[in-house]
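Q: What residues go here?
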C-alpha cells in the first residue's frame, strides 16, 4: 500500500463520492477553506492502481500551539471496508503524522461521515483517542428518497403534514434564491443563533459558500415568501448520492406559518427529482434527551420521517502529547470562563443586595 498526494479534482471527487464520502471532503470544500486561510492536503492510499481510502486534511497555524490538522467528515472509506479498514487507513495516518510533526502540529482531528459498524473500533485500533468535543455533530438525520412522493408524504408525522398544508393556505410560496437573498438569510441565521444559543455564519461566509459550491446558480437556494416578503431561506448542496441541507432559518412570521416545513419539503422533492438517494438534514442531538442543546432541532427533523444515523464522532491522532494536553486544558478554561464570571457576578450581587441586576441576570435566586 502506498500513499499519494492527489492533485486531480475529477479523480478525487470520483473516489470520494463512490466511497460514500460527504461534502466536507469534496474538492470544492477544500478550495473554499483554502481561500479562508487553510492549507489543504489530499492523501490517497493506493493498492496497485486502485484507491482504497482518502483523506482531505485542512491545516492551520494555531498561536503558541503550532498547527492544527483537521479532516472534516474524513477519512473516506467504503462502508463495507470500515470493519477491516486499518490496513488502508494506517498508511494515510502515518503520512499525515509525518507531515504534521514536521510542521509542529498538535494533532489530526477526524470525524468520518459514516454509520458503518466497526468505524470506532478501527479508529481506536490505529491509536486514535476520542476527542473531548465534536466539531461536527455525532449524529445526522436522513430521509431515504427511494420512495414515491406519496410515500414520502405519508412518512411525515401528522403535525408536519398539517403544517405543510397550513403554510400553503397562508400563501407561502417557494422560489429559487439569488445573490440578493443571502443578506436576509444571514440576518435570520443571526437572529436564530441569538435566540437559541447556536453558533452562526455571517453574510461574508455565506457568500463565499454560495460561490464555492455554485449553490444559487445551480438551483439549490430556496426562499419562502408571503406576498413578496421573505420569511425563510435555505442553502443546500448535492454531493454524491446525498443532498445536504446546509443552512436554513426563518423569521417570526415564517415560524408562525410553518414555512420551514414547506421549504424542506420542497427541497426533499427537488433532491428526489435529481435522482439522489438521500436527503441529509445534518446535525441532530442526543437520542431521547429533551435537555440536549439540539433537542428542538432534533424534534423538527424527526417529524420528516428521518432515520437517525449515528456517526463515530471526533477522534484525535495526537502528535505532541504534552502540548496537546495543555491545549485541551486551555480550551476547557476558555469554555468555563463565562460560566465562572457569571457565578462571581451572582455571588457579588447577592452579597451587595443588587436585586435589580440579579433579576436581569435571570439567576432564579429565591424562585
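A:
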Amino acid at each position: 500500500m502506498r500513499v499519494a498526494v492527489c492533485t486531480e479534482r475529477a479523480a478525487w471527487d470520483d473516489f470520494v463520492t463512490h466511497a460514500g464520502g460527504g461534502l466536507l471532503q469534496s474538492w470544492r470544500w477544500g478550495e473554499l477553506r483554502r481561500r479562508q486561510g487553510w492549507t489543504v492536503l489530499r492523501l490517497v492510499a493506493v493498492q496497485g492502481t486502485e484507491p482504497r481510502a482518502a483523506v482531505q486534511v485542512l491545516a492551520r497555524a494555531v498561536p503558541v500551539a503550532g498547527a492544527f490538522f483537521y479532516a472534516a467528515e474524513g477519512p473516506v472509506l467504503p462502508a463495507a471496508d470500515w470493519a477491516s479498514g486499518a490496513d488502508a487507513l494506517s498508511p494515510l495516518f502515518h503520512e499525515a503524522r509525518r507531515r504534521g510533526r514536521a510542521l509542529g502540529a498538535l494533532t489530526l482531528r477526524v470525524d468520518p461521515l459514516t454509520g458503518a459498524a466497526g468505524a470506532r473500533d478501527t479508529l481506536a485500533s490505529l491509536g486514535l483517542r476520542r476527542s473531548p468535543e465534536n466539531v461536527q455533530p455525532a449524529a445526522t438525520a436522513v430521509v431515504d428518497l427511494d420512495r414515491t412522493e406519496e410515500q414520502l408524504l405519508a412518512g411525515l408525522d401528522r403535525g408536519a403534514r398539517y403544517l405543510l398544508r397550513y403554510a400553503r393556505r397562508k400563501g407561502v410560496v417557494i422560489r429559487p434564491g439569488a445573490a440578493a437573498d443571502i443578506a436576509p438569510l444571514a440576518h435570520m441565521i443571526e437572529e436564530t443563533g441569538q435566540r437559541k444559543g447556536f453558533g452562526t455564519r455571517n453574510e461574508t461566509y455565506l457568500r463565499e459558500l454560495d460561490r464555492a459550491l455554485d449553490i444559487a446558480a445551480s438551483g439549490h437556494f430556496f426562499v419562502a415568501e408571503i406576498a413578496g416578503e421573505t420569511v425563510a431561506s435555505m442553502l443546500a448542496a448535492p454531493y454524491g448520492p446525498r443532498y445536504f441541507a446546509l443552512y436554513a432559518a426563518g423569521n417570526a412570521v415564517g415560524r408562525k406559518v410553518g414555512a420551514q416545513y414547506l421549504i424542506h419539503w420542497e427541497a426533499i422533492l427537488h433532491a428526489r427529482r435529481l435522482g439522489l438517494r438521500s436527503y441529509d438534514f445534518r446535525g441532530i442531538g442526543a437520542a431521547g434527551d429533551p435537555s440536549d442543546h439540539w433537542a428542538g432541532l432534533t424534534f423538527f427533523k424527526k417529524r420528516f420521517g428521518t432515520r437517525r444515523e449515528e456517526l463515530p464522532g471526533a477522534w484525535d491522532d495526537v502528535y505532541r502529547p504534552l502540548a496537546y494536553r495543555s491545549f485541551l486544558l486551555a480550551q476547557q478554561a476558555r469554555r468555563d470562563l463565562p460560566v465562572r464570571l457569571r457565578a462571581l457576578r451572582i455571588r457579588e450581587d447577592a452579597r451587595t443586595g443588587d436585586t435589580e441586576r440579579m433579576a436581569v441576570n435571570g439567576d432564579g435566586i429565591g424562585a
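A: Context that may help when evaluating the design: DSSP finds 13 helices and 14 strands in the chain. The mean pLDDT is 89.
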